[in-house]
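[Q] Does anyone have a clean structure-token version of this?
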Amino acid sequence: KNAASGGVMDMIQQIISDAKAMESEAIRSEEDAQKAYEDFVKETNASIEAKSKEIVNKSEQKAKAETDFVETKEAKEAVMLELEQLSNYNAELHQSCDFVMKNFDLRQTARDEEVEALKQAKAILSGAWLRSSCKGPGHPETLRTA
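[A] Here you go.
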């Protein structure tokens, strides 16, 4: 009986030690899996945080780029308007200069004739004044011209 019971007892002891070894291995395996899960969660959270910061930065860059685009577009429109106004002013000046150049000889001739007429008028008036001053204040021609 002892020999038979010793074999059963050894077998039970073997089963108990195998169960303890399996339990230890399962606990160690679960601890490793828990640590791997925690590391995965930390890495995932860090990745999510980095991606969130990246999204915020890119959103700010996009907003700045859109603002710059609008400002540049408005500046371009203002420059184009100014360019159009300058072009119109240039056309007006060109017409004015064309008129002056076209009529320069005619205007110069008219101005020369006007100057000559003024010289003649001055000469006539100077001569009339000289004649009247020579004749005296009581002379009949002086009274007529005055």
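[Q] Thanks! Anything notable?
[A] The radius of gyration is 58 Å.
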